[in-house]
Amino acid sequence: MRIASFNINGIKARLPRLKEWLEETRPTVACLQEIKTMDEGFPAEEFESMGYQAIWHGQKSFNGVAILADGEKPVEIQRGLGIDGPKDGEGEQARYLEAEVRGLRICNLYLPNGNPQPGPKFEYKLAWMEKLRTRLRAIWEEQVPAVVLGDFNVIPEDKDVWSVRAMASDALMQPESRDAYARLLADGWTDAIDTLNPRGGVWTYWDYQAGAWQRDHGFRIDHLLLSPELADRMNAAGVDREYRGREKASDHAPVWVDLRD
């Protein structure tokens, strides 16, 4: 079975590209980030016509996550991590959705960017990562096979970016961000893409500006973390890089992991 993640950067604007990807690759589970629509605007019927059922956690114009499953409806376990946004009175942003599909726990996330740093947005990013770690520890204690995937907005190591110098001041690469990500791995989670590409050089994001795609100026911020049982079942993991080069594409490429039944 294939578990995949795709920061779609606006589900309405990218719907043709998203459906194209689903039709051509047919993941068992597809987790989406930055759907950028309120709950009532989510195009569930478009996916139902393709055999996918969905749950989603929307927000007007920003953020938003969804989980699609082939042939069955994901069973929602939790939405949100119980942490308010960086602005006073803002409430919780739509960044986390957890469900069960075919006996697997699927944790779909869109982690805060954190820029500009230093400042409240960066502090929110770090607090959010600590909340995530707490939740993942609880899942670990349940001893269920789990995948934690999505846009982490963290470049884990220097090998995961086209230019360390160009990104040195970005929140995605700060020592605090990297340390928080490393702590997740130290808790026992396996970074699927990194495990199979230990030398790095694998990108999942290319900015729309400055010809980043054409010049291959990218970095890796979309990750798939596996619990030990699923790490033992990993057959392959990769990036559907070609979809970044299509017309009106997202600035992210889909990432995926194949698991033995």
Automatic annotation (TrEMBL):
Q: Which InterPro entries does the record cross-reference, listed alphabetically? A: AP_endonuc_1, Endo/exonu/phosph_ase_sf, Endo/exonuclease/phosphatase, ExoIII-like
- Residues at the active site: 110, 151, 252
Q: Which cofactor does it need?
A: Mg(2+); Mn(2+)
Gene Ontology MF terms:
double-stranded DNA 3'-5' DNA exonuclease activity; metal ion binding
- The residues covered by the Endonuclease/exonuclease/phosphatase domain are 4-252
Positions of the record's site feature: Interaction with DNA substrate: 252
- Note the Pfam families from the entry: Exo_endo_phos
Q: Which PROSITE patterns match?
A: AP_NUCLEASE_F1_4
Site (Transition state stabilizer) at 153
What is written in the cofactor note of this entry?
A: Probably binds two magnesium or manganese ions per subunit.
Alphabetized SUPFAM superfamilies for the sequence? DNase I-like (SSF56219)
Q: What is the E.C. number? A: 3.1.11.2
Q: Which UniProt keywords apply?
A: Hydrolase, Magnesium, Manganese, Metal-binding
* Site positions (Important for catalytic activity): 222
Keyword flag Methyltransferase: no
Domain of life where this protein originates: Bacteria
Where on this chain does Mg(2+) bind? 7, 34, 151, 153, 251-252
Q: Does the keyword DNA-binding apply?
A: no
Q: Which family does it belong to?
A: Belongs to the DNA repair enzymes AP/ExoA family.
NCBIfam families for this protein:
exoDNase_III (TIGR00195), xth (TIGR00633)
- PANTHER family per the UniProt record, alphabetical: EXODEOXYRIBONUCLEASE III (PTHR43250:SF1)
Name by which UniProt lists this protein: Exodeoxyribonuclease III
Q: Which organism is it from?
A: Erythrobacter aureus
Q: What is the lineage of its organism?
A: Bacteria, Pseudomonadati, Pseudomonadota, Alphaproteobacteria, Sphingomonadales
Q: Which gene encodes it?
A: xth
